[in-house]
From TrEMBL:
It comes from Rhipicephalus zambeziensis. Keywords: Signal. It comes from the Eukaryota. Residues 1-21 form the signal peptide. This is Lipocalin.
Length: 199
């Protein structure tokens, strides 16, 4: 009789927890990478775990559609501005996921949103590439309206779960890349990144 009563109590507590909205797995936010990209603001990669020589990596959305986005990714590589247009395709079932391919020929990759702040100002994004082998890179990205301040503490905390010693790509002079006109060289993944890989 006692085991039966105990089972009923556990069942009641479990149901009550779910109804109260305290279920840990049920209460998690469904992060949407589309929501983070749904902005007219430039999006900066503030910190990355990748081994790279580039600076001032920034995304600017050109076209946002229901299931896809077209954006321009720019940066400085050895003092030259490089840029390329990318096409991102959202996953209806995995809202955090986006498949990305460059316009024309080039390497495809995936981006997954691991965390986004409540005000959508910053996010932690996992980038999966296969330049030489499967490789994981963790980025802390921030919208332009919040880049003058220190990253949101919660964003930093979430980022440090994956990478504690990331390389900072942004500094105030990076704002110049937004106003810089003229021809830009083609942005390509660097071969040097092959040295840091995950099989």
């Amino acid at each position: 009789m006692l085991p039966k009563v105990a089972f009923k109590v556990l069942l009641y507590v479990g149901c009550f927890t779910v109804l109260k909205g305290n279920c840990l797995s049920c209460g998690r936010r469904a992060y949407s990478i589309k929501k983070f990209f749904s902005t007219t603001e430039p999006i900066w990669t503030y910190t990355t775990s990748g081994r790279t020589n580039i600076r001032c990596l920034v995304d600017q959305v050109n076209v946002m559609e229901k299931s896809s986005v077209i954006f321009t990714r720019s940066c400085y590589n050895r003092q030259y501005k490089v840029a390329r247009i990318f096409h991102g395709t959202f996953d209806h079932f995995r809202k955090k996921h986006m498949d990305v391919k460059p316009e024309g020929r080039g390497i495809k990759f995936q981006e997954d949103l691991l965390y986004i702040s409540e005000d959508n100002s910053c996010a932690v994004i996992l980038v999966t590439t296969k330049v030489c082998a499967k490789r994981l890179t963790y980025d802390l990205r921030i919208r332009n309206s919040h880049i003058k301040h220190r990253p949101h503490p919660k964003c930093v905390h979430e980022y440090e779960k994956y990478e504690r010693y990331g390389k900072v790509l942004y500094d105030p002079s990076c704002q110049n890349i937004l106003a810089r006109k003229g021809m830009a060289r083609l942005y390509e993944p660097e071969n040097s990144r092959c040295q840091n890989r995950t099989n």
